[in-house]
Write a structure and sequence with these properties.
By secondary structure, the protein is an alpha/beta fold. The chain has five domains: 10-113, 3-Layer(aba) Sandwich (Rossmann fold); 178-280, Beta-Lactamase; 314-409, PAS domain (Beta-Lactamase, 2-Layer Sandwich), CATH 3.30.450.20; 495-655, Heat Shock Protein 90 (2-Layer Sandwich); 665-795, Rossmann fold (3-Layer(aba) Sandwich). The chain contains 24 helices and 27 strands. Helix 4 links the parallel strand 4 (85-89) and strand 5. Helix 14 (411-457) packs antiparallel against helix 15 (461-487) and helix 16 (500-514) crosses helix 17 (537-553). The longest helix is centred in the first third of the chain and has 62 residues, at 115-176. The radius of gyration is 43 Å and the shape is elongated.
Length: 798
């Protein structure tokens, strides 16, 4: 029953009564918890701060520091404020409970304690804490990823700005660089200069005299060979002169220049002159190198964008996609070449979801950015939910140019949140239903047995007719309680190993005989190798019939009803996105129709009790809530796939059988026999049940001792151990509950014969709790004949 199978959960018990501490300590350690104890609030605060328990059970009334003050101090301490606190109190005043909840407690357990309730509440809040931690960790990881993506986006924008700056600087350098003009006369070897000689080289015009020889002095020694080779090429081919080389300035520094020269011939065709211009390209080349470095950095950033798992998209102002990274390919299924140039609204959204985009562009214009959640679709038509961040990108003039979008898939996160909230709601309703069912069963049991007593004392026809009416209505009330119990996952059932194909075969026979012929029935069940399950056949019949009836009602004009089954392995990935699933082997039973489907806005409510879309008088709203309760009581879960106008599929997952059937000796029919003076100890906290049970047993030749709780029962058994043949024990009692009473009696006499009585937990669940300590489990409300028959079986069983 411990929530975490790999690590013992630590629970801190705080109570100033040693006996209470001892009972709770033994109980919790029995169920695998590690328990720390404190007898006052001051000690509890120290232990909580140093040991960090997973949950605290805190008594309200204690000396010095009471439970409320202790809770308040726990919640203001950062080291202990996140530990769930459950108050244990004997008070029933609502103001006190509200005070405790306002201080930060998560729940109350009222004394006297009922062990199953304590265990259920502990496991529930440990489960909720674990889910909360999981969601918090996922949110933190998502926030870190978002921050990292934003950092990368900011760095990309910075590099883009740097590149734009380099381009602007490059253009400015070209415009402002100036040039040196020259005219070389080959006959005289004189060179005349014009332009920005002094600005570029630092020499005056007289200092440049000396013809080609003077020019060669300025050429870098390493470049002179290339210069002379280019001169000789041009003179021989009479083509344009073009060369980049280094020149020495007057201050001794070198600049890089680009020399462009053009040949002029004389009348004989001989080269007479070469005229051209020299441009200082030193800064231009530096800018070019800067640009290449920036481009390389951009490429590196682009590679990072392809590594990220987020979808990064750039679209223009008319929604055409301009950039599509690998994260977008993985998320949406569209390759970059397929997405580029497409309209993003048509590619990523259904028509009904386009309304989400109406105000986004308005926000972009006003604030430059937007973020929120969007419903989108993939290439395969799968609906996903993304956390989306939109940033408006402007050009050099500050005009809007494009939109940078970063999308993170949060579909699984949203599904887990929805399942978590649904589980909380259903758990609360289940707890309420269990309490109501328990009280009804205790009320119905003496009524049912009293009717049978009166039938024997009032033999006239009219009395018998009235009593028969009363008995019928009591049974109807009992059946209604069973439905409530199924919803609350606490119904008693006859569990045994079952073959799924036989269950479906029986349902097939019923629906083929009773449903309209306009509905085609299809069955798809493998003939061999389908795993067995462990469950109650009657309850599972009801599940399948409820689903088939819903399918029939969804196809008023006919259609196809398909029932199928197959083996299914739930892996860790599947269990992660289905809150009720656990890793292991299941049999999946599918009930599929081609009907009207279920609207998306009510999908989350269909399993709630009394919720129905059918007309008044045509549905109670208990059908699907009963299905869910029964399947959960079998350790399974239910999935739903539906689409309006196309149909609905309910997938029922049942764990593979791991337990053998209950001994058939305890379930068979036996001849109803009266007693022979055997002494029966009846233990029940309900006066009416004790009285009627005692009356019926004494009427059938048994002797009876009655006890109102476990403590009285132990005292009576100690005095009359040798005479008592069987002990009849209710599971839910104040002071000391049934399981605890049974364990103590078993220590007194290991061979004692015990019949357990319960109206909440199912047989297989109770067997896990009690082991072999009881011979039979009798469910409330039971008839007098049920009581006598089971009593005889226990007496006659060794």
């Amino acid at each position: 029953m411990n929530f975490n199978e790999n690590k013992k959960n630590v629970i801190l018990l705080v109570d100033d009564t040693p006996m209470n501490l001892k009972i709770l300590l033994d109980f919790l350690e029995y169920y695998g918890f590690k328990v720390l104890v404190a007898e006052d609030g001051k000690t509890a605060l120290k232990i909580a701060e140093t040991s960090s328990p997973d949950l605290i059970l805190l008594d309200v009334l204690m000396p010095k520091i009471d439970g409320f003050e202790t809770c308040r101090l726990l919640k203001i301490n950062p080291d202990t404020q996140d530990i769930p606190v459950i108050f244990i109190t004997a008070m029933s005043d609502k103001v006190d409970k509200v005070k405790g909840l306002n201080l930060g407690a998560v729940d109350y357990i009222t004394k006297p304690l009922e062990n199953k309730e304590v265990l259920a509440r502990i496991n529930t809040h440990l489960h909720l804490r674990n889910l909360t931690k999981k969601l918090t960790e996922q949110n933190k990881r998502l926030e870190m990823e978002i921050l990292e993506r934003q950092r990368v986006e900011e760095k990309l924008r910075c590099h883009s700005a740097a590149l734009d700056d380099c381009n602007n600087r490059y253009q400015a350098l070209i415009q402002a660089s100036g040039q040196i003009l020259y005219d070389w006369n080959l006959d005289t070897n004189d060179i005349k200069y014009g332009g920005n000689v002094e600005l570029i080289l630092g020499y005056s015009m007289p200092e440049m005299l000396g013809g080609l020889d003077r020019w060669l002095e300025l050429v870098h020694p390493d470049d002179r060979k290339f210069f002379n080779e280019e001169i000789n090429r041009v003179l021989s081919t009479k083509e344009r002169f073009h060369l980049e080389f280094r020149l020495c300035r007057k201050d001794g520094t070198y600049i890089t220049v680009e020399n462009n020269g053009y040949i002029f011939l004389d009348s004989t065709g001989k080269v007479a002159r070469m005229t051209g211009f020299v441009i200082d390209i030193t800064e231009q080349q530096a800018a070019l190198r800067d640009r290449k470095n920036a481009e390389q950095k951009i490429r590196e950033q682009a590679a990072l964008l392809d590594i990220t798992t987020d979808a990064i998209i750039v679209q223009d102002l008319i929604n055409q996609i301009q950039f599509w990274n690998r994260g977008a390919e993985h998320l949406y299924g569209w390759m970059a070449e397929e997405a580029m140039g497409q309209n993003a609204n048509q590619l990523l959204y259904r028509k009904q979801n386009l309304c989400q985009l109406k105000n986004i562009k308005k926000t972009l214009v006003e604030h430059g950015s937007w973020q929120g959640e969007l419903n989108q679709i993939t290439k395969q038509g799968k609906e996903i939910i993304v956390a989306s961040r939109w940033t408006l990108v402007n050009d050099n003039e500050g005009q809007a140019k494009s939109i940078l979008i970063v999308n993170s898939d949060i579909t699984e996160k949203k599904q887990l949140e929805a399942q978590f909230l649904r589980a909380q709601r259903m758990e609360s309703l289940g707890t309420l239903a269990s309490g109501i069912a328990h009280d009804f069963n205790n009320a119905l049991t003496p009524m049912m047995m009293t009717v049978q007593l009166l039938e024997a004392k009032l033999p006239d026809e009219q009395s018998q007719r009235w009593l028969k009416i009363m008995e019928t209505n009591v049974k109807r009330a009992a059946d209604l309680v069973k439905q409530v119990l199924w919803f609350s996952r606490g119904s008693v059932g006859n569990f045994k190993t079952l073959q799924v194909q036989y269950l479906i075969s029986e349902i097939e026979n019923i629906v083929k005989q009773t449903f309209s012929r306009a509905i085609e029935i299809r069955i798809d069940v493998p003939g061999q190798n389908l795993w067995n399950i462990f469950g109650d056949a009657a309850q599972l019949h009801q599940v399948l019939m409820n689903l088939c009836i819903n399918a029939r009602d969804a196809m008023p004009h006919g259609g196809i009803l398909k029932i199928s089954a197959n083996n299914f392995w739930v892996d860790s990935q599947y269990a992660r996105i289905n809150i009720d699933a656990k890793v292991g082997s299941y049999v999946m039973i599918s009930v599929c129709d081609t009907g009207i489907g279920i609207k998306k806005e009510i999908v989350d409510r269909i399993f709630e009790p009394f919720f129905t879309t059918k007309e008044m008088g045509k549905g109670t709203g208990l059908g699907l809530s009963t299905v869910l309760g029964i399947i959960k009581s079998h350790g399974g879960f239910v999935n739903l796939v539906t689409e309006v106008g196309k149909g609905t599929e309910f997938q029922v997952f049942l764990p593979v059988a791991q337990t053998r059937e209950i001994d058939s000796k305890l379930a068979g029919d036996h001849e109803l026999l009266a007693g022979h003076g055997e002494l029966i100890l009846v233990v029940d906290d309900e006066d009416s049940i004790r009285e009627v049970t005692q009356t019926w047993l004494e009427k059938n030749a048994y002797k009876v001792l009655a006890a109102s709780d476990g403590i009285d029962a132990i005292a009576l058994y100690t005095q009359h151990q040798q005479e008592i043949s069987v002990v009849l024990v209710d599971m839910m009692m104040p002071s000391m509950d049934g399981p605890t009473t049974i364990n103590v009696l078993k220590k007194i006499n290991p061979d004692i014969k015990i019949i357990g009585v319960s109206g909440l937990a199912s047989n297989h669940e109770m067997i896990k709790i009690l082991g072999n300590n009881v011979k039979i489990l009798l469910s409330k409300p039971y008839t007098s004949n049920d009581l006598l028959r089971n009593l005889q079986m226990v007496i006659n069983t060794n």
